[in-house]
């Protein structure tokens, strides 16, 4: 599975701790992350991560493009709902794309844990079926 990891500044420590806790599951998947978040995760876990731009510099839009191209299966986006974000329109667009393309989106630690446990059990395998069908139709 292809998983995007994103975290607002005040949630980066939560994301780092999450990736440390679930490293054994995440290591089996292809990971993408916005710049600063991905760099910090890599430093803490040594996980292989495809780094994109930082969120405010276009990383959220890059993640959105991957979603639109059916190149992502899951988005873990630890949002800070109490702090105004200068790139809020990009965040809203990313969330809308997840809804349009049926990409599971976790916006907090609790929902991310549910998704990661589901991934571990194989409950998200329906995404692989969609990916295979897309490949056959190209």
From TrEMBL:
Stored InterPro entries: Methylgl_synth, Methylglyoxal_synth_AS, MGS-like_dom, MGS-like_dom_sf
GO MF entries: methylglyoxal synthase activity
Annotated active site: 60
Cellular component, GO annotation: cytosol
GO BP, sorted A to Z: methylglyoxal biosynthetic process
Catalytic activity: dihydroxyacetone phosphate = methylglyoxal + phosphate
Binding, substrate: 8, 12, 34-37, 54-55, 87
Keywords: Lyase
Pfam family, one: MGS
EC number in record: 4.2.3.3
Transmembrane segments: none
Residue intervals of the MGS-like domain: 1-138
Keyword Isomerase applies: no
Purpose of the protein: Catalyzes the formation of methylglyoxal from dihydroxyacetone phosphate.
HAMAP family: Methylglyoxal_synth
Family: Belongs to the methylglyoxal synthase family.
Record protein name field: Methylglyoxal synthase
Lineage: Bacteria, Bacillati, Bacillota, Bacilli, Bacillales
């Amino acid at each position: 599975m292809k998983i995007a990891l994103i975290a607002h500044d005040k949630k980066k420590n939560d994301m780092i701790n999450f990736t440390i806790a679930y490293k054994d599951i995440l290591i089996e998947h292809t990971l993408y992350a916005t710049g600063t978040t991905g760099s910090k995760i890599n430093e803490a876990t040594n996980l292989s991560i495809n780094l994109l731009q930082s969120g405010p510099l276009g990383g959220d839009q890059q993640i959105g493009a991957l979603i639109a191209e059916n190149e992502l299966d899951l988005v873990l986006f630890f949002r800070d709902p109490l702090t105004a974000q200068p790139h809020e329109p990009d965040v809203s667009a990313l969330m809308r794309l997840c809804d349009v393309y049926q990409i599971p989106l976790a916006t907090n630690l609790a929902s991310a844990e549910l998704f990661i446990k589901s991934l571990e059990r194989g409950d998200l395998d329906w995404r692989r079926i969609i990916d295979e069908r897309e490949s056959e139709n190209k």
